[in-house]
């Protein structure tokens, strides 16, 4: 005599079999931690590594661009400046804006996390009580005066005309000047490039730090070296045979 299983037991067995089969389907991901949504990443180290380190170096120590962990830089750039630069970038340079509002991938909260993390790199004691020139110029620079300032503070490394010397590269190269903003030039004059052994505003002439006005003047001189058409391989006018009407 054949024993018939109750219908509800048969249904339970079928459901268990179906569940087992679903978990073994080809291509189905194995159980594991859920992937975090990009907007939910709030770890400073992760955000910095993904968005900043390629240009500013590991732990902000400098690379293609300046060191963000430089105590001089963090002494002159306040939180509002750091946030604006990170969120909006710098137009006409290689620094992009990372905020959603600027076409980037980061939320406002993620921008805040980056700023808060960079601020933790600050070391006020490293300035030894010195007060650096302000981040932005308080008075316009004068390019003519800047010529003398350059000779006094910069020529020993970068050569008499800024085209490079034994200790430093050219700082009047047209392509370089086309890629950096006036503010970037000012920041470099004040902060130097410690990752490249370039001194800050105190170290160009022993015992003679640059004044804020001297910084503005030499920046004006540098800006005056920027070509109108960077990278253009030929001078003068354009003939119809050379390129037609513009």
Supply the CATH superfamily name of one domain.
Cytochrome c-like domain
Oligomer: single chain
Q: Globular, elongated, flat, extended or rod-shaped: what is the shape? A: elongated
Mean pLDDT figure: 87
The DSSP helix count reads 11
Number of strands: 0
CATH topology name of one domain: Cytochrome Bc1 Complex, Chain D, domain 2
Give the uncertain stretches in residue-range form. Answer: 239-246
Q: Would you state the CATH class of one domain?
A: Mainly Alpha
Radius of gyration: 29 Å
What share of the residues does DSSP label as strand, in percent? under 5%
Helix content: 40-55%
CATH architecture of one domain: Orthogonal Bundle
Intertermini distance: 100 Å
Describe this structure in a few short sentences.
The protein has about 250 residues and is mainly α.
Give the SSE layout.
Elements: H1 7-23, H2 44-51, H3 53-56, H4 71-76, H5 79-88, H6 108-119, H7 143-153, H8 155-158, H9 174-179, H10 182-191, H11 212-224
Helix pairs in contact: 2-6, 5-6, 7-11, 10-11
Give your account of this protein's structure.
By secondary structure, the protein is mainly alpha-helical. It is built from eleven helices and no strands. Among the domains are: 84 residues, Cytochrome c-like domain (Cytochrome Bc1 Complex, Chain D, domain 2, Orthogonal Bundle), CATH 1.10.760; 85 residues, Orthogonal Bundle (Cytochrome Bc1 Complex, Chain D, domain 2), CATH 1.10.760.10. Helix content is 41%, strand content 0%. Helix 7 packs across helix 11. The longest helix is centred in the first third of the chain and has 17 residues. The protein is elongated and about 105 Å long. The C terminus is likely disordered.
